[in-house]
Structures are given as structure tokens and as C-alpha cells.
Amino acid sequence: MVDSTNVNSNRHRGAFVLKAIAASDEVSRILKANPNGHVHSVFTTSFNLAFGGHLVHVGALGNGLAPFGIGLEQAGAHLLTTLLAVDLEAVWDEESMSVLFPKGITLSLGDAKWTDHKIQPFIYNRTTLEDNFMFLANRLLQDDWNTGLAETTEEKKRIIQYIVDPTSSIDEIPVLDKLNDLKNLVMHHELDEKKVFDYWIGRGLGLTPSGDDVITGICAVLSSLEGTDQTFLRKLKPYLNEYGQKRTTYVALEYLLYATENEFHSHLLQLCYVLDKPRGADFLKALEEMKEIGHTSGADTVVGMLLGMKAAVIHKKER
What is the pTM of this model? Predict the structure, then answer.
């Protein structure tokens, strides 16, 4: 929403104000602890701010909300991307509940709905979970789901086939051997976790490489399903703290660090909460919203979710 009225501070009289619709609880903590920041990066319809080493993502709420995100109407988000530039100063003004930019540009959080992105683990229905596991696997095989892990349709088919049936052949496609290592790490087998993470973290193109999205999907499942072994998350966090900045993008690292704290993008949260529910409108809507995340991020994250479900729950039943 664009508003030409002043913010509640005489120091910023005549400010050009855009109002946020929603914001993550984490954003409030970041801004209060680190009021002085700058524009970190600008994209076509969204941008990132940096405050005290933490990112704050600002974009259209219709695209979902990051665990460190602020959501605006589509038009407002696009307008801000045209007005801002990298390294531009950004200051949090507690009195007006606003992020202030030069030339009177103001992003007001005064009317924003504050959202909690920390997933709450739930006791799941195993039968429904397994049924939805197969549904998700079959949906990924459709042509409109693109994964960055595969270069061809046949490779994508083999990847999904392996996740559904880990006893299938892993010959000829190197990534299947690496998926096997990742599954075994989730199952808490004794492996060199640094070697496994070195392969996956930062693997692929984009702001959130495919390997990072797969890891995020695994973390989401382990965080969601009551009673799953959390060793994988406990190993991931120190690895990210020590090697993350050297291995992947700033944005991807931020998502991964939040994932180790059980905090996720709103679209991923919605899909997690229906994993063991009968497939009604909520399930299908959550799945479609996941597909819309990035070019391959949604599909890559679902691949990770499937791997997590197989390793942490379904495989245990099969043994």
C-alpha cells in the first residue's frame, strides 16, 4: 500500500510511505538490535536489506514470506525495487516503526501482521504420510516441475525412482550416489559429514542453489515430524558457521541457518503442516505455491522433503 501521509515523526515530514502487510517476528528482533543498515541486493520484484550481519528480505507477500521477510503488495514491492539501489543507507526508526531510506522513502511496519516461522513438530499419521509421499513423488515427475539436480527428463525420473526405492540402481548418474550419502547422513550413519555437505552446499545455480534447497527440505521434514532423529540438524549448524560463507550465496546461507533453528519460508511451512493430512484443497494449494518458488527451488526443496521422509520415517518401517 502506498501512502502519501507522514510517518509519526516530524523529522521525516513529507516522507513517501509504503506500508508492509506482514513481517516475520525475526525482523523485529533484527531491527531492534541493529538499527543501522543498508540495501544489500536488489532484484526485479524484491530486495534484501542488511542489518548487523543479518538479511531482511522485502518482497510481494503473494510470493510468500521468508523467515526473515517483510511482505508488501505486489505494486509496492516492485516500486521500491525501482527506487532503491545497493549500498543505500537504511535506518530503523522505532518511534514510527519504519525503515527509513534517503530522499524520504519510508517502509512502514506499523500496520504489519507479525508472523511466527518456527515450525511446531506434530505427531503424524504414518499411513497418510506415506500416501502423500507417493503423491509428491509422482507430481515431481510431471513436466511442469523442474529440478536443478537433473539435466534431462530421464535423470529426473531416475532421481525420483531412487528416492522411492533406494535399492534401485545408482549406476551411471553420479548424483544418485551423492543422494545415497545424504540419505545415510540423515539416518545417522557414520559418515564424514563435511564431505557430504561440501558436495551439496552451494551446488547449482541461483540465489539458493539446488543443493541448498534439498538440504532445506530435509531440515523442514525433520523439524516437522515428532520423534525424528535431529542429529542431521545438529551437524549442519556448525558446518554452516565454519564453512557456509565460502560454500554458498549469502541468501542461501541465511535460509539454511534459519532452517537449523526450525524456521522456514511460509510456503514450506504450509506444505509441512499438511504432509500427513488427507489431500484436500489446502494440500493442493500448498503444493502449487511451492512449485512457484524460483525456477527450480520449489521442486528441489520437495526432493529434499521426500528424501527426509524416506530416511527418517518410511525406511524405518520397511526394515
Answer: 0.92
